[in-house]
Specification:
alpha/beta; pyruvate-formate lyase- activating enzyme; MJ0683-like
Amino acid sequence: MLIPGEYLKGRGAQQNVANRFSAHSHEMRDDFLNHCNQEGDEPQNLKTLFIDTFPKTIVNKVESPDVGMGYSLNPYQGCEHGCVYCYARNSHEYWGYSAGLDFESRILVKRNAVRLLEQHFAKKSWKATPIVLSGNTDCYQPAERQHEITRDLLKTFLKFRHPVGIITKNALIQRDLDIIKELASYNLIHVNMSITSLEEKTRRLLEPRTASVKKRLETVQKLTDLGVPVRVMTAPIIPGINSHEILPLIKAAADHGASSVGYTVVRLNGAIGGIFEKWIRSAMPDRADKVLNQIAACHGGNLNDSQYGRRMKGSGEFANQIQSQMELGRKKYLNGREKPALNCELFEQYRPGQLALF
């Protein structure tokens, strides 16, 4: 049973927080916790539940001008990886769940994802442009091992010769190297591998159910060896936690074949601010105030900044230092490398209902 003040291992969030769209909220009272302790009961069910959903559409147009993608597709909502800083936590509130423990233990599975993607490709108005898997939640999170929706989606992208991007921090992507290799032969795929730290202790605390650092770097190398352009996302940079690792991270990415690196500065928008603060005071109590103050220094004195063009990189002295280190690392370790544009010319020959010309 979770005792107040005790760190909850294996999860990022340490509690459920109130849903801003709900008229009701609840709290764990001491008398209830004492009752559970006496009866030998758990005060909350932390076992992961998979919930089937059947949305009407699957491809999302990304309106935010500073995200770096035009369209995204998310086969799952919620993510068992449990990354405490994850911006996607807030989206779980739209489904009636908490951005806290619910986000990483109540996973919505989009059962009709492949059929919806085929329907999208069949639209006469659709012009091929890269669609990114995992614009919100990781398409290779643990649920994918059981449900294999991402694998089936990649088969669909290959069938219709449509360009696709992937963002993940899970080595499970290696399972699908057979499909990815064929996509790469047509220049139809880019992979973005998120590596936040080279220190396993930090990784386990920040991202409790993700692949190890070693497995992620191994994945970068294997993808590169297959001719797949890989961008390593050193994101987010969190002052006082992984900001000292910027240059070593870029070097490790380059040593394993990455073609480029990217980054964001952590911003704790919506419910994530409270979730992160609760987590760091439990997981890293000795540096909690320092980290929170330095994050705020990157966002004009707040834990979050929603201004487009500024929110991802931050502002101020700490943010400028991070940017300078990134620029130095790119010049030192990645000079001359580039990520080629994806091929958008083949799709018309393979569009659903269209006979291939050759």
